[in-house]
Amino acid sequence: xxxxxxxxxxxxxxxxxxxxxxxxxxxxxxxxxxxxxxxxxxxxxxxxxxxxxxxxxxxxxxxxxxxxxxxxxxxxxxxxxxxxxxxxxxxxxxxxxxxxxxxxxxxxxxxxxxxxxxxxxxxxxxxxxxxxxxxxxxxxxxxxxxxxxxxxxxxxxxxxxxxxxxxxxxxxxxxxxxxxxxxxxxxxxxxxxxxxxxxxxxxxxxxxxxxxxxxxxxxxxxxxxxxxxxxxxxxxxxxxxxxxxxxxxxxxxxxxxxxxxxxxxxxxxxxxxxxxxxxxxxxxxxxxxxxxxxxxxxx
Length: 299
Prior knowledge:
hypusine biosynthesis, 299 residues, Deoxyhypusine synthase, three-stranded antiparallel β-sheet, EC 2.5.1.46, NAD, mainly alpha
């Protein structure tokens, strides 16, 4: 066996017998939670930092959220307070503006209730999502989405008038109810545009829909409610300043009065944790700090 080791290629010997160098300074020994000490949910979550794999990524995300909250609570400098006076939004400017980005399938799922809680309790400043992230919330106020199975065949479901989102099922009737609810509202919005000169931006449109749905289970009901009604005069509703791409207007093609002004995107910028197509752009000059937390993966 020793002779075989001597005959091994030098490169292999160098790799196998190479002495270990210094580990990165932030490296910690791997250790998971020991249930022998009894259940302690706080300690269990803290142990994720040294558990490894996705548990460690979860712990790093928690640490980043703690950093956001700490920055938000920091007092503003005199210069930042002066700039805050230029802020057209009704909410107070803080040391950190927290963006919450999510893909539409999370609203389709039960994560919607978590997002609704964050908005209801004023724990995020801006929501960034796609059109589906708005529509699915409103649709679920009109009719429920059901749990199905990933293995169900889409072709079979389609023949029965049922749509599948992963392992979630949405009857076609839900979308019919949504159109019946939405069309009269859009007609009123066009009339207000024609008679009152209202310019419908994304946040104004979504705030209006949140007000019209008038359902405390809705994310956008709370977004406009916490923001002072979102009527376009009190400013942009908190957690509602959506960066919507071209898909945002997909609810309008069958609209009988195609005179609705195309939504204007409000420019902003943010650091992204995660990836997807729920991405904001440039920030207003008065925003001292912007942080984004993106959840989910988009195309």
